[in-house]
Write a structure and sequence with these properties.
The protein is α+β, with helices and mostly antiparallel strands and 326 residues long. The protein folds into two domains: 218 residues; 106 residues, Arc Repressor Mutant, subunit A (Orthogonal Bundle), CATH 1.10.10.60. Helices cover 44% and strands 23% of the residues. It has eleven helices and eleven strands. The strands form two sheets. It has a six-stranded antiparallel beta sheet, sandwiched between helices. A hairpin with a 2-residue loop joins strand 3 and strand 4. Helix 6 crosses helix 8. The radius of gyration is 22 Å and the shape is globular.
Length: 326
């Protein structure tokens, strides 16, 4: 097992520590693992001298243990991730282990005064981003607004009590993917990640501002969130079939029609029918311009019956007609 001990008090020290341990010859933003430890990288950025952005994107080739030491400052740690951890909260630290259980992505809110011991097992795929808010950044705002300070403290407290339940919103999920799995056609540079990190941070503050204990986000049923994703995967796998209707999809998700519809729209930012139609159009685009299929073949494969409606919907989405030769 490979073991690393660190804290989040200084991002420059943190970067230098992991570079010396993993990739001492590198001068790039990304610190790559040696192949015997993992495939992938770590990245560390300063959004400001008091706000840090950390990115993890790798597959472990060995067992890894991370020990994050507690520090005296009341810094806030936001951990956005799309892999599962099982947690045990002990007196002075969180003990977290990689889990194979399903997760559509979630976020933890912690303070740096509580340490953490994390076990990543061989074969685990870790994709996450952390934003560290130094107490010197938050204290001036909290001194002006005791209500905001209390809201954040409550948010952290509930995050620990319901540490498995909070999931990423549609906007958070998109920003997460852009940070952790950036588009290869996009220029990746310092400002690219900083800009998205700031936008991701904004979603946290908005959640805190609108959050109230009696209707807090941790009351969300994580099993239902998983069922929503199972339904959306079903729709993506059955684009060649007619849309089966919201009632039947809600039954598949073991949810009421209203609850299913509202939660699906919150997660995907689309209704189930809009999601289904958009995935069909995206698939038709790949078939025509990627695989070279004819419009007739695509319409037959994806069960389109009206060519004029298909061409119009295609143009509205991609600003190009399907019979244009690229």
């Amino acid at each position: 097992m490979y073991k690393y001990t660190f804290d989040f008090s200084d991002i420059d020290e943190l970067r230098n520590y992991f570079r010396s341990q993993l990739d001492p010859e590198s001068t790039s933003d990304r610190i790559y693992f040696p192949p015997e430890i993992a495939e992938g990288y770590l990245s560390y950025y300063k959004i400001s001298p008091e706000v840090f952005l950390l990115v993890n994107n790798y597959k472990a080739n060995a067992d890894i243990e991370y020990i994050r030491r507690p520090i005296e400052e009341k810094d806030i740690i936001l951990h956005f991730r799309k892999y599962a951890l099982s947690h045990q909260i002990q007196e002075n630290q969180i003990v977290s282990e990689y889990s194979d259980s399903y997760t559509p992505g979630n976020m933890r809110c912690m303070h740096a005064r509580q340490g953490e011991q994390v076990f990543i097992t061989k074969g685990a795929v870790v994709k996450s981003t952390m934003i560290v808010l130094k107490s010197s950044y938050t204290t001036p705002y909290f001194m002006k607004s005791s209500d905001m300070a209390e809201r954040v403290d409550s948010y952290i407290r509930y995050s620990h009590q319901h540490i498995h339940k909070f999931y990423l919103s549609y906007k958070q999920s998109n920003l997460f993917d852009q940070i952790v799995q950036p588009d290869l056609d996009t220029v990746e540079n310092y400002l690219y990640f900083i800009a998205r990190g700031i936008r991701l941070l904004e979603t946290f503050w908005k959640d805190v501002l609108k959050w109230e204990t009696e209707s807090n986000p941790f009351n969300i049923n994580s099993a239902q969130v998983g069922n929503i994703y199972k339904v959306s995967n079903y729709l993506k796998d059955n684009l060649h079939e007619p849309f089966i209707g919201v009632d039947q999809l809600a039954t598949m998700a073991h949810m009421s029609r209203t609850n299913f519809f509202n939660m699906f729209k919150e997660i995907h930012n689309q209704t189930p029918l809009e999601f289904f139609n958009n995935k069909k159009l995206e698939s038709s685009y790949n078939m025509i311009f990627g695989e070279g299929l004819s419009i007739k073949e695509v319409m037959e494969t994806l069960n389109y019956s009206n060519s004029s409606k298909f061409r119009k919907a295609f143009f509205n989405k991609f600003d190009i007609y399907p019979d244009i030769v690229l």
